[in-house]
Amino acid sequence: MKRRTLMQAGLAALAAPALAQPARTIRFVPHASLAVLDPVASSAYVTRNHGFLVWDTLYGIDAQYRAQPQMVAGHGVEDGGLRWTFTLREGLRFHDGEPVRAADCVASIRRWGARDAMGGRVLALAEEIAALDDRRFAIRLRRPFAMLADALAKPGSIACFVMPERIASADPMRPFGPGEVVGSGPFRFRADEFVLGARVVYERFDGYVPRAEGEASFTAGPKRVLVDRVEWQIIPDPATAAAALRAGEVAWWERTTADLHPMLARERDVVVTIPDTLGFIATFRPNHLQPPFDNPRLRRALLPAVNQADFGAAIAGTDARFWRTGVGVFAPGTPLATEAGLEAMRFDLDRARRLVAESGYAGEPVVLLAATDVPATAAMSEVGADMLRKAGLTVDYQTMDWASVVRRLGSREPPARGGWSGYFSSWAGLDHINPAGHLLLRGNGSAGFIGWPESPRIEALREAWFEATSLEEQRRIAADLQRQAMEDVPYIPLGQYFLPMAHRRTLSGAMQPGGIPLFWGVSIG
Amino acid sequence: MLAYIARRILSTIPVMLVVAFVVFSMLILSPGDPAAVIAGDQATPEDVERIRAALGLDRPFFVQFAEFLWRLVNFDLGTSIFTNLPVTHMIAQRIEPTVALMVLTILFSVTIAVPMGVIAAWKAGSWIDRAVMVFAVLGFSVPVFVIGYLLAYIFALELDWLPVQGYTPIARGFWPFLENLILPTIALGSVYIALIARITRATMLEVLAQDYIRTAKAKGLGTRPILFLHALKNAAVPISTVVGIGIALLIGGAVVTESVFAIPGLGRLTVDAILRRDYPVIQGVVLLFSFVYVLVNLMIDLLYTVFDPRIRY
Predict the structure, then answer these.
(1) Where are the domains of chain B?
(2) Can you give the pTM of this predicted structure?
(3) Given CB atoms, is A236 within the 8 Å cutoff of chain B?
(4) So what's the ipTM on this one?
């Protein structure tokens, strides 16, 4: 024990008889500043993580990615799968003391549906969503949708969080402020202690009723809170965050950086682990609307140019425990992950050069947008630009901050008129566990996500996956989807990487499944 | 004098208007988009457009500028695009750490740097003079963040004397408040000390070569009164000018220092707001900094009359 710690412990011991039991507080360093408090208006991961403290969901998913009832006691399906009736558990309350009503759930589903792709699908399929009474609501569908509970359980951004009707009725395009952060989740947001970019405070919500049965698993099961307070301390500098963890000023750091692993691993009182086997997926997204990547032969020619190990090492360091190669369109280790079609990505630079030459590529400049303020993106952009040059492409490498990249990506103009040809980015593995939330695995052209690939076959397979009634059938479709993705190349997976979390040994039960730090079941000694 | 002060204060109005226009234009015309940041990584361009429309960011430049000016005239800095919190509230939340850091740094730096410069000038050419100059060069050359990391490593991690990061408001006790600010003050003060010490030394060398100093020595006056009563008072005008100019240096340095020591001050608020393109917050903070800078310059000008009675306004 060091001097200052000893002194503080001594003072605390002297004062102990006169003081009440101190609050059990977890001081946590999130991976980013919490800028938007509304988890429906923003798809930022840090906002989603904040969402899981404050709000609850109708369904959760367990460690096997199966939907499990969370706020609902259960549901009934009638009329050949066309009518779903949901019943809320008893005793659910919002943090303002009001009971959770079916009308709140209906308004929340509508708000979620206006922002989320999966939610949009639910709204499109729903003929009617209506409250039957205070505890029951029903969704009448135009055609059967077996995955309705899975959709409502979706943990990735954007999750279907249940809010009071008065808040859920607000425009989902305008993020609400601290005063509207009212949920029915296990923690209550302290608006009075919120300092944007510095501190976010949550208190245990004593009115929360955990599910009575089962064990907590991912976002499902009983959410039993074992601490009084959770304080998020925004520490933008990784070296300072590491020092604060070593000094015991914070107990849990969500994402360490590769250069600090060795130092933290040597620390006796600190544990460094990979908390999330889904990790992150590095990707290259070409612009399908403009030359040169409107040429499918050129897109296919890039596949053998990819050495996923190069990207892993650049992002997460040379320790191969922190990255994985052989990654396709679904996150490794998840039920739909497959090797089908991946032979097209066998690394062979000579073959890539030959295919580029044969593709009809005429030397048009490839405008790459590289965000330099996101370390992983900056690293993969450097490696990716080098890869494209080695494959024989002319690269115009343009660096900027992420906010500028996002603005520029909205342009569908040719690269010479302010458009772009390609960009590199990371996705949480959780977003790539199935086709539902996988925005890059679409072929809906100009109506789709940035890059706008058009592939009727991918869209047809995606639709078939939604209709599939067994996991076996889903797997077969997933394999076909991956083969088709290697043909149409809507994007290129560049590997999976992991950013370990670190915490003090005094903290137990810390988990970050799917990249979501969960604060229930966590205790601090 | 009062007429001069009133004139100077009135002259800040056009300055602030120019600052407001330049800042607003630069923000609107620069790349980046708050709507895209709000929407998050997984949003489509259509989502971003809808958010931009909902926030009124798609309106013409002059409409937005006119609205901004109207609010400004009504002493309303607007609300954050991201949190809906009033900018004045956000500034109020962050002003204490920055003011505390700056005041402590100025006090610490002037207390150290002025005697250092005076002694260096008095002992010009000696090892003391050289040591002061080496320190000054180091202070200028080593970036604030490097000094910050070094101090945190030695005094927080190795010796465990002080905390690594954070801030405790003064309302929670003077020592908790002070212990969080000791390392940031030393780190931020290093450049400032170097600057003031060099100017003090140079000015004092000039003053010490004057006839009246020789006369004072001939009269048998002691070294201390000569240095600190006669010479320093006459050297005070350029020194106070540098102290004033250095406030701008401190504002820039505070951004880095607050990031290294995770102090929730205005510097970090500014950087975060710039990265997010939170226009009202950036405008509010830049206007505040500009106003403070203008005010500090006015105070320095008024101080000249105290140090040199020949100066009249």
Answers:
(1) 2-73, 88-312
(2) 0.87
(3) yes
(4) 0.83
